[in-house]
Amino acid sequence: MSGPGGRRLIRRRPTAPSAVTWIAKTLERAGFETWAVGGAVRDVLLGVDSVDWDLATRARPEQVRRVFRRTVPVGIEHGTVGVLARGSEMYEVTTFRRDVETHGRHATVEFADGIDDDLARRDFTINAVAWRPLSGEFHDPFHGVRDLERGLLRTVGEAGERFAEDYLRVLRALRFAGRFELTIDPATWHALCAATGRLGLLSPERIREELLKILGLDPRPSRALSLYAASGALEALAPELGGLVGASMARALPVDEWTYALMVTDTLPARRPLVRLGALLQGIGARPAAELLVRLRFSNAQADWVAAVARAGAAPPDADAPPAELRRWLARAGAPLLRDLARIWCAHERVGRTLAASRRVDAAASWRSLRRELAAGPPLSIGDLAVGGDDLIGMGLEPGPRFGRILDELLERVLDDPGLNRRETLLEFAAELAAGPPPLC
After folding, report:
1. With 212 labelled, which of 93, 176, 228, 327 sits at a CA distance of 20 to 30 A?
2. CB-count burial class (<10 Å; 0-12, 13-18, 19+) for 26
3. How open is the CA angle 100-101-106, to the nearest 5 degrees?
4. What 3-state DSSP class applies to 421?
């Protein structure tokens, strides 16, 4: 929300969950200065509800554990103690810290005595604002509130040094700028672009989590992902996707493949980040999509799922296609994918209308046709056949390449006519196929 002159309206009187107030008050009464810090403070200033509240305190971990009856040592070595509130929610309380040494992927820290040291080690000014729940005062030594009002993303301190301390900050900058519609300060942008060549130092897991945050939290992930492309981060981390930038669409559309993929991704719900990812990767094909996900340490199941989405394509079969064609499509794509694929088809359809594409696909009609065919319970895989490997072995066939080809041919016949899926009928077909001449290759 913006006010007069385009400045954002900042909520100056934030409220915190009662458990956060209780923890801060308990620590303060025990003699330990305590502040709310980080993303929650930024979010409440912007009027965004936040559930991820972190507290920074002068108390050392052992002192925090003495003050509260129920604690969890979630990161004692880093100064973090989990405090369980009355409702069993856990909030992280961390001792004030300062950086001693940085390595590009993490920092060596030591405990500090004041909030200024703790804020000075944070990445961006908008994340370096502290709020004291007990008194309601803000502490903002780096003018993060002013930057929020101006819609500006700026590092704390010299930008090149800040990115070199932890190159994940490059990706965090792109995510924050996209999600909160911030303009990146020129000096910060220049240093960010210069640092993209070092992103390979990051672990794949950290890169994956940043990508999932963009897809799962941002109503319009295209904003952050466009910055990935503009900064060089996309080419550094996912050159497969980088190849879509500037590539002409197969259909005559007024956008390149990358822009089209982003428009489709924006149209899908944030609560389904993997569906968004599948839609984003459709343009690069099934195998490159799977390889990219494996490289980023997604699970094998997730990589296989996204590859199947990419393989299924951006458009459904025609709603008036013959039943056998619909069954073959279901056998190829996999019935469990159908609901999510329908979401992606509808997204393509909406983007096509936006771009006034000449060829329109009635995704809803195709969905209904596929659902009707699926409701009839047709056999769609070799495992659905009325005969199996044991039956062929009982006929005297030996497992091998020809064995598999016979089962594939039986499935093809059943896809044409599901009524043929009877044991006796398929055994007859199998005997005919076994008696025929072996294939040349």
Report:
1. 93
2. middle
3. 115
4. coil
